[in-house]
Amino acid sequence: MMRLRIVASTAALAFAVAVGSAQQLTSMTGDSSVTGASSLGARSQFTNVWAFSPPSSGNDNTYFRGAVMPQPQVAGVSLILAWSRVETSPPQAAPPCSTGTAPDQQQVDSIGMYHCYDWTTYDSTAAGNLVMQWFDSFGGSPKLVNLLFSGIATGAVNNTTPNYVTTSSWYTNSGFASGYNRQDVINAIKDCTAVPYIGTSAAVGNVSWTGTTVKVNATGCCSTSTTDQSSLIHNGDTIWVTGTASGINSAVNATAFGITTADQFSYTSAMSAGTTSAVTYITASQSWPVPYELPYQVALQPFWAAAIAHYAPNSFAKSSQLNYFRFGGSAGSEWYPYCVTNSSNPSDGLSQLSSPYKYVKSGGSPGTTVGWLDYYSQMTGYLQSLQPAAKVIMSINSAETGPIDYTYADTEAGYAVQHVNAYGVAFGFGSQGLSALDYVNCTSPNSCGLSAPVATRSASDWNPLFNQYRGLGTPLELQTLSLSYEGDTDCSSPVCGPGNGKYSGDLPTFLYPFATNAGLTDVELYWRDLDLAYDAANYCVLSNPPPPFSCTSGISLGGQLTSGQWATFFQDVGQAKPMLPNTCVAGFPYQSNAGGNCAYATNVNSADGPH
Fold first, then answer.
1. Which pTM value belongs to this model?
2. Per residue in 517-548, is it b (16+ CB within 10 Å) or e — as a string?
3. The pairing of beta strand 540-542 with beta strand 200-202
4. What residue ranges do the domains of the chain occupy?
5. How far, in Å, CA of 570 to CA of 244, rounded?
6. What is the tens place of the pLDDT at every residue in 502-512?
7. Which CATH entry fits the domain spanning 2-160+289-530: 1.25.40, 3.30.700, 3.40.50, 3.20.20?
8. Which is nearest to 332 in space by CA: 159, 133, 131, 107?
9. Contact 482/496 with Cβ under 8 angstroms?
């Protein structure tokens, strides 16, 4: 099977690539010293198709495993692993950890604290397990798995950073020098609306008020445990609350208290008296912790070390099926700095932090400012020091607004390829923003080159950067911005955007041959798009004729599509019955009324393989 020849963790390829990569990397002293495609030379590549974050249980899982995973064009899956599910207790001053003392169970950080890790959640082989079920052959050659390690989650609340990171018991540790012993956080209530951390709402009927004490009833909101590291609200957590009634907003530096059950908490309001109202609330641990600050960095690094130790070839039985790792220094497995409008024209958020954590783009001054790109470089160097025994792909992210500053991504790509894994293979890089708008911006008469106008750039400059570095033979990865929307070839209807409820446009427009021609080696597609492409029986269970058809049941839509879109997509670009022309999947169940033209499957099939 050709697929097995492209696994970089396999010794043959790893060492073959290492020879050329290591020689080329010796002259790389900075982001400006790496030459462009003209000197590196064009290079053919094999493109792998991955299912991003597939469902772990229920009918969605059953259908996906049955219809999509057996497809030879699907190399495997990319899975997100959350920090807080592994570090489930706060650090301790001395060993041993109750979880064990092996490197994947116990790590000591740079200030001498011991971190304990429990991998049970991800090692479990019980039904519906999050990771192990995907180390399977699905009736063919073994599928491969990419692991994306996340320290912060995106969404209304952050549920991935361990609770201790934003508590004073951690950041006031004597190991952090004076001035550096704080951990700032960003959220929409106190900082800016350009962040996803908007908090949770409680209806007026669930809010009561006595003097300056406000009590909020919210089912499952809270934890009574003193060691639990989940994102639930704990006694003593810093909390921000806002509402429409006068004075109901939280007092400065308010803390949650009165948590005796899992369903209510109290806080001190800014004023007494007034009228109760609905409120929105978020704690420090549910916000975006500023990741370049020392308390966060020092806590994150041993988690990375434990993860690499856990999935090392000598300790993980399925290591031959691991393909690449991606480690995020910000939200998700990405590196985006939230809440900074423009570092040369600061507004609220990061730029307004006081010394020594005042934000700058790069070239931070110790004791005064911290450079985001310096943080990226330092953490990438730390990752190299851990000697990961798999391919590593770093995310690149442009930043700021008014206008967007693409040189963040340009510099990050240069930093990424200067580092190597245990086999000497250069780190790859990629963007999680692929959409049909990239095709529009990079196709004549437009140009998306490094000197192109901001209005016609590809997401985080991935397109010209791929062409610049493809000669290194390093992994070049893309993930779609969001769920695709068939027929939207220019991101105009609907307008493309990130996140649930948003879209990335027409898949054949941006995938093959556009992205593959730019040097794409790995593409992560949303699992629902792959289900639309390949599942003829269960993506949409068609109603009885005559048309117009509707879907009576099928995969979970997750709030993404209306019932009309659901059937239309299936009947336009999904599977047809095998007797029709253009059918893509033979030997699988089908519906007699299915009439799609198989455009999605055809395009994915074309994207996979050598280019």
1. 0.93
2. ebbbbbbbbbbbbbbbbbbbbbbbebeeeeee
3. unpaired
4. 2-160+289-530, 200-285, 545-610
5. 44
6. 999 999 999 99
7. 3.20.20
8. 159
9. yes
